[in-house]
Write a sequence for this structure.
């Protein structure tokens, strides 16, 4: 258990899970509910309290037993020169990705936006990181897409753009990358309500019929519509 | 070679999507409709249902175990979703309900569907599904009420957890157009670390390979006793399974849990099935019930 | 740590050999008795039975499918065979029959046994097994007749193919000493080359991993409704399965199809089970029914 | 289909079965019964008509469809200097063994007894073979055990003795080898009525509890009692 702030915590498992960055597990919080959570490393998930179950998780003391199914889903792919764009708790899978890429000698630039300084987690783990906060309590005041534009990032410097964050942010980035015609080089980690996590119940299908739990959660930009 | 007829419903092939799998959104139905002979939606009732908490679906060594609890939006909302169906194959809407009036009302709401399936067999919802299927008089009334409101085929999906042969006869006498056999079989799993049932609902329904021989026996038995078409369902994962079910008497089959292995399962099945039929020089129709003849 | 009591029968461990598996000869019973908590013989009736022609047992992806048809020698001949049993653990003799008198007579012939199991559940023999189990009044009379002739424990083996909870209550009211749940589940398989059912009897009973979640649910349900011991049977292949069944309410378990994987399956299970109990600091007895408590 | 004589035939399958000599298959003769048969090569069984089902098999024309489960059971083991002792239709698995050993450069001596000349099959396939017939129509008149004794075979010349034949013959050989104290170096292929062929039904268990279909059909001499 690492408590980052009142509402965000990282739960470290006793055992590592053979997995790739971008994959998720179905984590059963006994007496509450089983929920999908992206891995923030091979042996952890990083959770923000938004409902009853995530609140219970964030309040764990350590030593609790949870049920885990997985890992499930299609992970991020490798690239040599990577741009990571994270919004809020979307940092969780991208943090796993960051270390995974760095261990494989990729150059990685991180753009990371959160609501406030308090909710910025793992910040000290990134070598090159550009930060924004909605309230301006740290780095640029505004959202991370505005920061990308302000810093006039040349997307051609990067082989691939990786993105995870709230829907509104994914949508803005999607539109930006669409304009630049590089959706094919972008990977979005998408969130949807899930029941089974294994491609059967159909709770998480996108409008085009793709299943977030199987064909996703990581999609190439050109597989998506917003 | 693959065409089949179920009452007045003509299918280009006998492989249908089973109810409860990927059937809540037009997006997935549209994708599956590219290859399927027909798609059956997730069961819907007049009112929406939350369903059970997660975990409600788990996979195990020989299949899937679920207790989703008939989670579904209200009928009118679901009807709007289904308006986005691409029509690449016939659409069969599955209903749950607790009395004839509810089922009859549902038929009206989904009058754009090509056929209807009555869920008399879901093993884990109180007052619905299997609990309705146990009351043979009620089943009779439900089917009569539905048939009065539509000319389209009405199929009854039955459970292996009761006297399915008797139930099938009741359905036939009420003028149902086919029997779908079977739904999931009651089962459960316990986690030996936390020492509790894994499903939030404690128990649920077993599907997948585990129940294939059980479903096959049900199809066999029903085929011997009724003359309306039997639609096989339960653990069918590949073309060989489809052939087995056809030989046992299934005029069509439904695929559910096998989508766990591949989104393309129906396409893969069709390829194998066509080869088998070509090598054996028979149409699918000619296979139906062949193992009963000596 | 592993000792259990079933009525007045004390077992050194809860792992029993299931009826129908390797239970026709003293040779195999003697070998299995080295480790088992108890062994149950193949079911025997007053008269011998030929059983069905081969193929009568096949293995498939998720287990075994059989229709042996209660093949067995006449009771008196079998009693002579069992006199060669080495007594390394309690001997439970399983009976089939079609009326109370037959069962009562069988108890006398096998008076040297430590307990008796009544087969009310074999799914593929006409006028026996499951067909008897369906008639709850007859079951009551059979158990009463047997109990009048012996002080030793009498267990009733029930099927998942009927209302097993009601049947278990009937057995309890007739003073049975335990319920064994479950026997094989009705099923079949068809050969797609010859286009015929594979078993000579057309259909049979499914056992092995496939039926584990089904059997577990039966044990769970019966445990909730009766207070006599429940003995779990169905798809148990390893120590984890045993723990699941204990948590669901089984005071002992029976191993059958898993002998397909190894003759040493009981020994292997005991090793794993002991480790689990040690790590969890509980006796087997304390596990029983634990998953019901919240 | 090779018809050796009125009562014995070899059925050749369309496909070879990955197997070892000594293993058997459960062969389903539709409309009759499924029976256990030792393989006489990777793609054949050799059958003697003794009952309804074997009679039907022997009368096959070729092209019939049969059901096959297997191969099952424990096979013979390899040895460099082998003595094969066959009685009657017991030649079937031993013929498979013979070729298997020869291909692996073993020296193999065959002693082969049958009722009459007519029932001697595969005779021309063996390089060194000593033959007996009950009626004296070919080779030594008498049984094959008598022939072994008559020829004063020194069992120490052989690394292993392989045997298959009728119960009475197995019993005499067993007693002979027991006297010579070389049961450990002998392998007997044993026959029993079988139902499942996979170790469950218990039809084929020996007095000591071993299952012919699983621990056998080939047993080391010292695992048996006669």
């Amino acid at each position: 258990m690492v408590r980052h702030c009142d509402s965000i915590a990282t739960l470290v498992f006793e055992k590592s899970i053979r997995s790739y960055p971008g994959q998720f597990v179905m984590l059963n919080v006994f007496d509450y509910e089983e929920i999908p959570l992206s891995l923030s490393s091979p042996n952890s998930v990083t959770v923000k309290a938004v409902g009853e179950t995530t609140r219970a998780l964030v309040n764990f003391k350590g030593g609790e037993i949870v049920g885990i199914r997985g890992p499930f889903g299609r992970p991020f792919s490798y690239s040599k020169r990577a741009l990571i764009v994270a919004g809020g708790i979307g940092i969780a899978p991208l943090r796993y990705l960051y270390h995974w890429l760095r261990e494989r000698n990729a150059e990685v630039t991180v753009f990371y936006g959160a609501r406030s300084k308090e909710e910025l987690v793992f910040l000290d783990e990134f070598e090159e990181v550009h930060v924004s906060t909605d309230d301006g309590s740290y780095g640029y005041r505004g959202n991370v897409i505005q920061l990308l534009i302000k810093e006039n990032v040349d997307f051609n410097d990067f082989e691939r753009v990786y993105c995870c964050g709230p829907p509104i942010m994914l949508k803005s980035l999607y539109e930006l990358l669409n304009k630049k015609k590089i959706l094919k080089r972008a990977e979005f980690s998408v969130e949807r309500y899930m029941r089974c996590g294994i491609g059967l119940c159909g709770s998480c299908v996108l409008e085009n019929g793709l299943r977030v739990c199987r064909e996703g959660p990581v999609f190439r930009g050109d597989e998506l519509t917003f | 070679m693959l065409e089949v007829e179920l009452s007045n419903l003509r299918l280009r092939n006998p492989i249908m999507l089973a109810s409860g799998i990927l059937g809540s959104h037009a997006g997935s139905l549209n994708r599956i409709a590219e290859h399927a002979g027909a798609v059956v939606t997730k069961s819907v009732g007049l009112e929406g249902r939350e369903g059970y908490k997660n975990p409600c679906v788990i996979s195990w060594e020989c299949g899937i175990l679920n207790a989703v609890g008939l989670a579904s939006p209200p009928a009118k909302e679901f009807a709007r979703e289904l308006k986005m169906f691409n029509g690449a194959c016939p659409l069969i809407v599955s209903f749950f309900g607790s009395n004839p009036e509810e089922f009859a009302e549902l038929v009206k709401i989904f009058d754009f569907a090509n056929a209807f399936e009555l869920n008399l067999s879901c093993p884990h919802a109180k007052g619905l599904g299997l609990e309705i299927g146990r009351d043979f008089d009620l089943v009779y009334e439900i089917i009569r009420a539905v048939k009065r409101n539509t000319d389209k085929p009405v199929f009854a999906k039955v459970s292996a957890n009761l006297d399915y042969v008797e139930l099938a006869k009741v359905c036939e006498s009420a003028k149902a157009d086919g029997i779908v056999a079977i739904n999931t079989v009651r089962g459960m799993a316990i986690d030996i670390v936390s020492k509790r049932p894994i499903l939030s609902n404690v128990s649920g329904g077993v599907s997948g390979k585990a129940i294939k021989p059980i479903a096959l026996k049900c199809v066999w038995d029903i085929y011997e006793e009724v003359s309306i078409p039997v639609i096989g369902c339960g653990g069918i994962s590949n073309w060989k399974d489809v052939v087995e079910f056809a030989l046992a008497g299934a005029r069509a089959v439904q695929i559910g849990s096998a989508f766990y292995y591949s989104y393309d399962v129906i396409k893969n099945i069709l390829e194998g099935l066509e080869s088998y039929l070509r090598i054996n020089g028979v149409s699918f129709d000619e296979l139906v019930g062949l193992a009963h003849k000596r």
